[in-house]
Automatic annotation (TrEMBL):
Gene3D superfamilies: Nucleoside Triphosphate Pyrophosphohydrolase. CDD domains: NUDIX_MutT_NudA_like. The keyword Manganese does not apply. Its cofactor is Mg(2+). Belongs to the Nudix hydrolase family. It comes from Sphingomonas adhaesiva. Keywords: DNA damage, DNA repair, DNA replication, Hydrolase, Magnesium, Metal-binding, Mutator protein. This is 8-oxo-dGTP diphosphatase. GO terms for biological process: DNA repair; DNA replication.
Length: 141
């Protein structure tokens, strides 16, 4: 088995507590399934920088790497060739309006409603972690 493939994804969360998911284009691997926006980390690239780049490419928004807070990760060991490791970041601040530049559709909804969507296996545990994080009471300041 080869070196793991590192992928970054964003849980973009709006002021109403809704998260953005995108639908993979039909004809691609996992076509038609819903996923967190993001993509592969290029050699020599920091994960947060890669995610900021991917969000600009896929959604047309600007996100400062400092606005990305690590939330969780998941591993898809069943991927042929090499395991896929996905890092999920939480993001509540960005500039611009997300558009489906690399997806067939976008959907904003609360995590429990998004759990009913068909997703690639690696996204499922990440959505469950996000749902728990958003349901937890805010820490006292």
């Amino acid at each position: 088995m080869g070196s793991p493939i590192l992928v970054v994804a964003a849980a973009l969360i709006d002021a109403q507590g809704r998260c953005l998911m995108q639908q993979r284009p039909v004809g691609k691997q996992h076509g038609g399934l819903w996923e967190f926006p993001g993509g592969k980390v290029e050699p020599g690239e920091a994960p947060a920088d890669a995610l900021a780049r991917e969000l600009a490419e896929e959604l047309g928004i600007v996100v400062a790497p400092a606005a990305l807070a690590p939330l969780s990760f998941a591993v898809d060991p069943n991927r042929p060739g090499a395991a896929l490791v996905m890092l999920l970041y939480r993001c509540t601040r960005w500039s611009g309006v997300p558009r489906a530049l690399a997806a067939d559709a976008l959907r904003w909804d609360v995590p429990r409603a998004l759990a009913d969507l068909p997703m690639p296996p690696v996204d499922v545990p990440l959505l469950a972690t996000l749902q728990q994080a958003l349901a937890a009471p805010a820490p006292l300041a």
